[in-house]
Amino acid sequence: MALTIKKWLTQAKTLVNPLDAELILANVFKASDRTFLASHSEKILSAEERQVADKMLTLRAVKVPLAYITSEKWFYGHKFKVTPDVLIPRPETEQMVETTIDLYNMLATRIVIRYEEAVKARIGVIEPSWPDNPNVKEELEKIKEEILSPVMIFDVGTGSGCAAISVGLECVHAQVLALDISEPALKVARENKAKLKAENVVFALSDLLDRISDSAPVPDIIMANLPYVDRDWEWSSPEIEYEPSIALFAERNGLALIYKLMRQIKQKWPALFEDKKRNHQKFLVLESDISQQERIIRYARRSGFSLVKKQGLITCFEY
Predict the structure, then answer these.
(1) Is 60 exposed, middle or buried (CB count within 10 Å of its CB: 0-12, 13-18, 19+)?
(2) Considering the domain boundaries, does residue 250 fall inside one?
(3) β-strand 174-180 against 151-156: which pairing, if any?
(4) Does any domain span residue 82?
(5) Could you tell me if 52 and 110 lie in one domain?
(6) Are 173 and 54 within one domain?
(7) What is residue 275's three-state secondary structure?
(8) In total, how many domains does the chain have?
(9) At residue 177, what are phi and psi to the nearest 5 degrees?
(10) Which among 121, 242, 255, 263 has the fewest CB atoms less than 10 Å away?
């Protein structure tokens, strides 16, 4: 029996959340938004369209996450590819992106100010004809090399790459290195990078910072949405069972990997923690459950990190 969009939706909405039913059909028609369904409510589904829609509906009815069914999820204004190899991006993680962008803007502004001060101190006020002076040009290039280095940002546990790519697209003069322990996850992340043209983002396989050389430059900002779910927590949503456990669960009440990352930072760049003046301003931005944050703050302070900000699921530290 032929079904119109309106009739299919009426039936589907008795099986799943009405919004999910509309998103499924919008995906089948590759519509930019759900208004297409309202404006084409009498359109008849082809046999192929109905077969695809019914299959997606069946999966959603048994609680398969919609993002895995449609293979996409919006995050920070961009549509990302997702598969069961990656954690589904959450809106809460956008706060980690916002915090990182704010830190980048602060650091970038300070770099520009330092550059202007250096030019004034070593050259003086630039006259219109000075850029043509070879001696002035040479000195300006030296100052640029010394001061105008890109802000380096690490994303540890990048998954689909949604946070790293979102930061890279906003912070165009940053260099973003995104790390993950899962090669299948990195394959998805690289596809997202290519699709969204985030040229300043590089992905690499690493268990936290294990593959980062001790002689590597110190990143200005490290952001990390690591697995922090305690297996003993009670969950009301069956959808979490479909997500990769390696991206969800951690030992020590969900805090083992966060603690390990802090230890690695201190082991790789110990001079930063020995400097009492702390004028280098390096930052660590973490996502965790609110119930874990006091323990994270206590551990961080014992390890030499200073709390800068706490908002929602995000804690930000300086070291």
Answers:
(1) buried
(2) yes
(3) parallel
(4) no
(5) no
(6) no
(7) coil
(8) 2
(9) -110, 120
(10) 121
Q: How far apart are CA 188 and CA 201, in angstroms?
A: 14
The answer on pLDDT for 229 being more than 90 is yes
pLDDT surpassing 80 at residue 126:
no
The one-letter amino acid code at 123 reads: I
pLDDT digits (tens, 9 = 90+) for 7-63: 999 999 999 999 999 999 999 999 988 999 999 999 999 999 999 999 999 999 999
Band of pLDDT at residue 127, cut at 50, 70 and 90:
low
- Please answer whether residues 268 and 209 qualify as being in contact, where contact means their C-beta atoms are separated by less than 8 angstroms: yes
Same domain assignment for residues 238 and 294: yes
This prediction has a pTM of 0.90
Answer whether residue 50 is part of any domain: yes
Distance CA 252, CA 231 (A): 10
Q: Give the span between the Cα atoms of 254 and 234, in whole angstroms.
A: 13
Q: Which domain, by its residues, includes 42?
A: 5-62
Compute the half-sphere exposure of residue 206: CA atoms within 13 Å on the CB side of its CA: 19
Q: Among candidates 26, 24, 30, 27, which has minimal Cα distance to 12? A: 24
Identify whether 14 is part of a domain. Answer: yes
Q: Report the alpha-carbon distance of residue 35 to residue 201 in Å, rounded.
A: 34
